[in-house]
Amino acid sequence: GEDVEQSLFLSVREGDSSVINCTYTDSSSTYLYWYKQEPGAGLQLLTYIFSNMDMKQDQRLTVLLNKKDKHLSLRIADTQTGDSAIYFCAESIGGATNKLIFGTGTLLAVQP
Amino acid sequence: DAGVIQSPRHEVTEMGQEVTLRCKPISGHNSLFWYRQTMMRGLELLIYFNNNVPIDDSGMPEDRFSAKMPNASFSTLKIQPSEPRDSAVYFCASSRGAQNTEAFFGQGTRLTVV
Q1: A66 close to A13: Cβ distance less than 8 angstroms
Q2: Which of A85, A91, B6, B23 has CA 20 to 30 A from A54's CA?
Q3: Which residues of chain A have a CB within 8 Å of the CB of B47?
Q4: Nearest CA to A24 among A110, A102, A108?
């Protein structure tokens, strides 16, 4: 089945690192994504990782993938107040068509 | 490119009325997705199209919901009759359709059914 779960809320202080976790169930997922949603806006892609990779780093963002446990995480280094948003992980399923199943979203609150 | 364009941005309607949400995908994208976002259920995939053909509509909640994509540049999501529990933000997204391609989201339509 297709199910993606995340913790609902995370609060950190400005300058600290944030780690947002995600678990998924479909082992056939080929790509996994992190999207960011700011208030009143649509979702924007932050980064993605191919399922045969363990880690991907992109500036302040580090994605870790444990395929055995079907666990994905997003680490944001030096978290800023502008990082406050809802973060969604998503898995890509379905052969040639990029069907995206999203997690429940994690609200990241950055305290100054 | 202007991105994915949805209209209207906000819609308030009375229970029982027909509601039509519209989406213009990014030119050249051949996959289009309709999502619904609520506090209780998060972001749900309702239906997606590839090359204007509905591929998976298993997320459409009821027969009251229908979606069409008459051509590559336009899609509609219709609710008839609408009910208060349909109140949500409805997002349209498009992508190039192959694996590992970014899905670009519209700004969403906030629907309130009273």
Answers
A1: no
A2: A85
A3: none
A4: A102
Alpha helices in chain B (DSSP H): none
Averages of pLDDT over runs of 10 residues in chain A (112 residues) are 83 97 83 90 90 92 94 96 95 68 92 92
Return d(Cα B50, Cα B69) in angstroms, integer: 10
Query: Alpha-carbon distance B58 to A37, whole Å?
Result: 25
Q: Walk across the sheet containing B65-71 and list its strands.
A: B5-7, B19-24, B74-79, B65-71
Structure tokens at B28: 């050249």
Structure tokens at A17: 């690192």
Q: What secondary structure letter does DSSP report for A83?
A: G
What is the rounded CA–CA span in Å between residue A15 and residue A1? Answer: 38
Chain B residue with Cα closest to A101: B45
Option in B45, B99, B106 nearest A42 (CB): B106
- Which tokens go with B51? 């090359």
Q: What is d(CA B78, CA B42) in angstroms, rounded to the nearest whole number?
A: 20
